[in-house]
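User: two proteins, same treatment. go.

Assistant:
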Amino acid sequence: MRRRIPQHDLTAAEASDALGLSIPRIREMVETGQLDGRRVGKVTMVHRKGALAYIDTIGTPPTTEPANTPPAA
C-alpha cells in the first residue's frame, strides 16, 4: 500500500484512495486527531507521515496487557 502514498501531504481525496476510507471518514479522523493532518481553509490535508503511521497500525490488535507486564503463560 505504501506505493500509493504520494511524496507530499495528501488531500482528503488522496488519503481516501490510499487508505481505503471515505472522504468524510478521513475528515472526521483528522478533526478528532486519529489521523495526523490539518485544515487549510476548507480543505483537509493529511500529513504524509500520518498516513504512513496509520497504515502501520492497521491490523495491529489492541493489547489488553499493561505495557511493562510480560504476557501471561
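Protein 2:
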Amino acid sequence: MPRCQHRLLLGVLALSANRVVPLQRLAEVFWPDGARHGVRIDPMAVDVHHFAPYAPAFPPAPKQ
C-alpha cells in the first residue's frame, strides 16, 4: 500500500474515532468509481491455499 493510502486510511479511521468503520465505507473512499480491483494469481502461490488440505489433520486450538 503506498504511503499516501496509509495516510488516507489513518484519516478515515481518525474521523471515526471509537466507532467501527464499515468495509463498504473504506471501499467508497479508496475506490470512489466503484471499480472492482483484483489480482490474478495461482492459488498455490498463497500459503493458506497450499496448507489448507492439511488443516483437517490438526485438532482445533483449545478455547481460552
